[in-house]
Write a structure and sequence with these properties.
This protein has 437 residues and is an alpha/beta fold. It is built from eleven helices and 19 strands. The chain has a 13-stranded parallel β-sheet with strand order 4-5-6-7-8-9-11-13-15-16-17-18-19. A three-stranded antiparallel β-sheet has the order 1-2-3. Strand 17, helix 10 and strand 18 form a beta-alpha-beta unit. The protein is elongated, with a radius of gyration of 30 Å.
């Protein structure tokens, strides 16, 4: 239910079996007569304040929780029922948009002070019950460390299930904020945190989180040992996303991680190796320079995405290495900015690959014109059950030489039947010799 609908609901009045809004009947088309009431005037019936339908408090709280936070605060100002539910609103998201601060405001304009005052007042008046999500996202406001610590401590005390902290980008290099990891669990080591997002700070966990299912770290100072220790001690973890964490050189995930199904490693500059033995991992997304990959024999990865824009030959790497690393893959997406090695006949086939997507020239908008595109046929030969194939080539910087000569000079390849293919898409086709072949 949107804010407009709630305003309509709160402005309704009962009258003679019909709903009256601003003096108009919104009931049946046949207007029912209403007996006169004491206090009526010649101009019409006297308006009586109406706070809404007589619903249980839990219903009001549920309706209120569906609203965006800013709208939830607004309706609480005009409704006693929503005022009560606002004090136990389950999802608190604090950023410039929800707090109504000027997007162009800076610390000089007092934005940081206003933000601090507003957050403090909301938390002081919150009942402390039913809170599920607590999010702090400050793009360009500088917030005092003590205030951050107090807010996070409050969220932990209220035993929230989802916690998010994202600080301004200038916190990453210069005096990064140290996330108070000790608040994530109580004295007995118990924690209610199920989803944790931490961005642009130092994150040095000291113990695992038993109920953690989703972990997302972005531009965080954390080492491979620290991350590995946290993950291995969080046995319920299902989704792990690591982005721009440049202190990580390797990541090891043990076979004890029975619930882990999704792993993303995105642009971790110094990452060299990923060793995964989580048996139920189904989706692996990697972006960065080529690294050493190792998956345990029990790992059943079905979906793989590889994005490499430096030291590429990603397509060649995928053809030669991946069949033995992820033999059960069914969907494979490859992004490469350059290929200097043509595809050979695959020594090992992708026996289960059904969906293949290759994007060449991704990143800088150009691709080597000397590349033998026809060698990609060998890739297809190595995918006997392939159903869909997509090829996207960016050639904005290529000098094309049109080829209209004798077609007998075109390169010939042996025929091969692909009976399972249902869909083929090629974008970036150009009338050059390599393409016409």
């Amino acid at each position: 239910m949107g804010l407009l609908g709630l305003k309509l609901l709160m402005s309704m009045q009962r009258g003679g079996g019909a709903w009256y809004v601003a003096g108009r009947s919104t009931g049946s088309r046949t207007k029912r007569k209403r007996p006169p009431c004491q206090g009526d005037t010649p101009q019409g019936p006297k308006k009586i304040a109406y706070s809404g339908p007589d619903l249980p408090a839990d219903i009001w709280c549920h309706i209120h929780s569906l609203l965006p936070m800013r709208d939830a605060a607004r309706v609480a100002c005009v409704s006693q029922a929503f005022l009560q539910s606002w004090r136990c609103h389950p999802n608190l998201t604090f950023n410039k948009e929800t707090l109504g601060l000027n997007k162009n405001a800076s610390q000089k304009d007092g934005a940081s002070t206003d933000l601090t005052v507003i957050i403090d007042r909301i938390l002081e008046r919150h009942s402390g019950t039913r809170m599920k999500a607590f999010k702090l996202a400050f793009c360009d406001c500088v917030v005092d460390t003590c205030n951050l610590n107090n807010w996070l401590q409050t969220a932990a005390t209220l035993r929230v299930e989802e916690l998010c902290l994202s600080l301004p980008s200038n916190h990453y290099k210069k005096d990064p904020y140290n996330f108070p990891c000790s608040i994530l669990a109580d004295e007995c080591g118990n924690s209610m945190i199920q989803k944790l997002f931490v961005g642009i700070c130092a994150f040095r966990p000291v113990s695992g989180l038993a109920k953690l299912t989703t972990l997302d770290l972005c531009m965080v100072h954390i080492t491979g040992d620290e991350l590995g220790s946290l993950v291995s001690s969080s046995s319920a973890l299902e989704r792990l996303t690591i982005r721009y964490c440049n202190e990580i050189t390797y990541l090891k995930i043990s076979s004890l991680m029975q619930h882990l199904s999704y792993l993303m490693m995105f642009e971790c500059r110094y990452l060299q190796m990923v060793d995964i033995k989580a048996p139920n991992l189904s989706t692996f997304y990697f972006s960065g320079t080529q690294i050493q990959l190792s998956f345990g024999e029990a790992v059943q990865v079905k979906n793989v995405t590889m994005r490499c824009f430096v030291q590429c030959n990603t397509v060649y790497y995928a053809c030669v290495k991946l069949p033995s690393i992820v033999p059960n893959v069914e969907t494979l997406n490859i992004y490469s900015s350059s290929e200097g090695v043509n595809i050979p006949i695959l020594p090992i086939k992708f026996l289960h690959l059904k969906h293949l997507s290759i994007c060449l020239g991704a990143g800088d908008g150009s691709f080597c014109p000397a590349y033998d595109y026809l060698s990609l046929v060998y890739f297809l030969h190595g995918c006997p059950v392939l159903e869909t194939f997509e090829l996207n080539v960016s050639h904005t910087s290529i000098i094309h030489n049109s080829y209209y000569a004798d077609p007998s000079h075109l390169k010939q390849m042996p025929e091969y039947l692909h009976n399972n293919i249902k869909k083929v898409g090629i974008i970036g086709f150009w009338h050059s010799k390599a393409w016409l072949s």
